[in-house]
Amino acid sequence: MSIEENLNKIKNDISKDITLVAVSKTKPIEDLKIAYNLGQRDFGENKVQEFIDKEESLPKDIRWHFIGNLQTNKVKYLVGKVNLIHSLSSIKLLKKIDEEFAKKDCIANVLIQINIGREETKGGIFEEDIESFINEVEACNNCKVKGIMTIIPKGNDEENRYYFKKMKIIYDNLSKKSYKNITMEILSMGMTHDYKIALEEGSNLIRVGEGIFGKRNIIGGLTNE
Ligand SMILES: *Cc1c(COP(=O)(O)O)cnc(C)c1O
Questions:
Q1: Mean pLDDT for all residues in the chain
Q2: Were 31 and a residue from 27, 40, 72, 214 both cysteine, which residue would form a disulfide, CB within 3.0 to 4.6 Å?
Q3: Within the chain, where are the H helices?
């Protein structure tokens, strides 16, 4: 199926208040342009260099989502260019983002990545560490947490649903409280093979790559792992 057919199909599946991030990692600029010309404005990338190259060659009204593992020494390249960082996964990274965005008087919008499946190979913080992590967020000046994100373990529909439900409970609990620098607006979960279940369980932002652009044939897997 073409990018156009894929995009139309997904948009038909989801309601208007859901944000669809088109995950374009490893895909050529031409593919992003096709999606852009069909009205797509939210794009997700997971490598800093690739993101910078694409950001420079595409229209400025694109909202870029950084969804990959982010090294602290590369944070500076995202300042002023990225709309939302989904992969905030350590206090060290939080402090670096706060520092680099402050240098240019910018605000960083971020999601806390939760390692809901407690997988050693994946990034994100554990549930029991959220509270202390929040204390650090409250001490920031240039970071605003807009919600939470997860990459769930590989599994069947039932297992996927279990983890999405867990995320929704965390999201709802955080929504009830009031913290400095934190508002719960975005629950980022669901990808090509599980976004329907994620939406049923309360996701309001899905990140879809292969389901839009087709299979990635190079090392374009989950480099967030
Ligand atoms: C690659 C990636 C996606 C998209 O995965 P697909 O299976 O291609 O939809 C979503 N989120 C993250 C963090 C990714 O790295």
A1: 96
A2: 27
A3: 3-13, 29-37, 48-57, 91-103, 130-138, 157-176, 195-200, 210-213
- State the Cα–Cα distance between residues 194 and 158, nearest whole angstrom: 11
Asked if pLDDT for residue 221 goes beyond 90, the answer is no
Q: Tell me the two tokens of residue 18.
A: 């859901």
**Nearest C-alpha to atom 6 of ligand 1 is from which residue?**
209
For residue 71, count CB atoms less than 10 angstroms from its CB and return exposed for 0-12, middle for 13-18, buried for 19 or more.
exposed
Answer whether 0.90 is exceeded by the pTM.
yes
Sequence-ordered list of residues with C-beta below 8 angstroms from that of 213, at least 6 positions apart, any chain = 3, 6, 22, 23, 24, 27, 31, 35
The response to whether residue 122 sits with its C-beta less than 6 Å from ligand 1 reads no
* Confidence band for 224, pLDDT divided at 50, 70 and 90: very low
For the chain, what is the radius of gyration of the CA atoms?
Answer: 17
Atom of ligand 1 nearest to the CA of 193: 7
pLDDT of residue 218: 64
Q: What average pLDDT does the segment 66-87 reach?
A: 98
Note the CATH architecture for domain 3-215: Alpha-Beta Barrel (3.20)
Q: How many CB atoms lie within 10 A of CB 172?
A: 12
Ligand 1, atom 8: closest residue by C-alpha? 209
